[in-house]
Amino acid sequence: MVAVGVDIGGSKVAAAALTGPARSWREHGLRPDTATTAGVVAAIRAAALAVAGGDPVDAVGLSVAGWLSADRRRVVHAANLGLRDVPLPDLVAAALDCPVVMENDGNAAAVAEAVRAAADAVAAGRTGAGTVVVLALGTGVGGGVVLPGGTVLTGDGGLAGELGHLPVPGDGRPCVCGGLDCLELYASGPGLAAAAGTPDARAAVAAAGRGDPRAAAALRAAAAALAAAVRILQPVLDPARVVLAGSVAEGAGPPLRDAVTAALAGPGPLAAVAAPPEISLSTLGPYACAIGAAELAAGRKRRGLLRA
């Protein structure tokens, strides 16, 4: 069985193909002039066929950055793609003649990380990976939660996992969501760059590495905000692992992970009875969402939950 995952962004399409236990992936560009519904479907079809390497595609998983309906059959609004109220899975299914499942990008990345955590658990002689939380630090802060057994936590209206809007201690910054001091105001790329006084997050991380005091303070504030978010999540979800993913985490690397871990070492919820969860960095790079989408499609196809 060949299951393909396609991660659709405003400037690129990343695709991953799973053939049995084997995994391969490659990246495909989505030009701005194809960012219409028909253009998006055509780009997904081309990427899926290319990464399948000539084999028939049995199932497709879509990872979309945007708001999805609770049943995951419609894109409610994906501003970076110009899509609003579009039945994207049905359109892609017709284009590829195979069943299609869809999830938002944060949840898709969480599935990929949960699969990796499960493999790590087996290698360590454990039977399961426990609950895995992903915090994807990029233009915003995305997130996802995967429960033991691989179930994605989506919530009643499909909004569970919007972890970038967890409220953390801060200086009263307003968020576009209507709240104050949301996590992404401090730990996203733009938030980090604004606090560091640099043009972007990459420059902020570089400046902090050179010892620039303002940039170093911004990175510490981001780590403190992430630790505060983990403290909120621990009594609710009791996760085994929290994975820092996305371009900011990739750029900041181990120093950010270690700073979050250190911030969690002090007193906090459940400290008397439980240790904080493991904080790790994603090793899946820009293909995490595509890999997770492919895993979702493959798993549901095997269980007979995904049919054309």
Task: Kindly report the average pLDDT value.
Answer: 88
Strand neighbour order, sheet with most strands: 3-2-1-4-8
Q: Whole-Å distance between the termini?
A: 14 Å
Principal-axis shape equals globular
Helix segment count?
10
Largest sheet: 5 strands, mixed
Estimated structural class: alpha/beta
Q: Which regions contain 5 or more consecutive residues with pLDDT less than 50?
A: none
Extended strand count = 12
Strand content: 15-25%
Walk me through what this model shows.
The protein has 10 helices and 12 strands. A 5-stranded mixed β-sheet has the order 3-2-1-4-8. It has a 4-stranded mixed β-sheet with strand order 10-9-11-12. By secondary structure, the protein is α/β, with parallel strands linked by helices. Strand 2 and strand 3 (22-29) form a beta hairpin.
Can you give keywords for this protein?
10 helices; 12 strands; alpha/beta; 308 residues; globular; four-stranded mixed β-sheet
How would you sum up this structure in a few lines?
With 308 residues, the chain is α/β, with parallel strands linked by helices.
Secondary structure blueprint with pairings:
Blueprint (H helix, E strand, L loop, with lengths): L1 E7 L3 E8 L2 E8 L7 H16 L6 E6 L2 E2 L6 E4 L4 E4 L1 H9 L3 E5 H19 L8 E6 L3 E6 L37 H4 L1 H8 L4 H9 L3 H25 L3 E5 H7 L1 H10 L14 E4 L6 H15 L6
Parallel strand pairs: 1-4, 4-8, 9-11, 11-12
Antiparallel strand pairs: 1-2, 2-3, 5-6, 6-7, 9-10
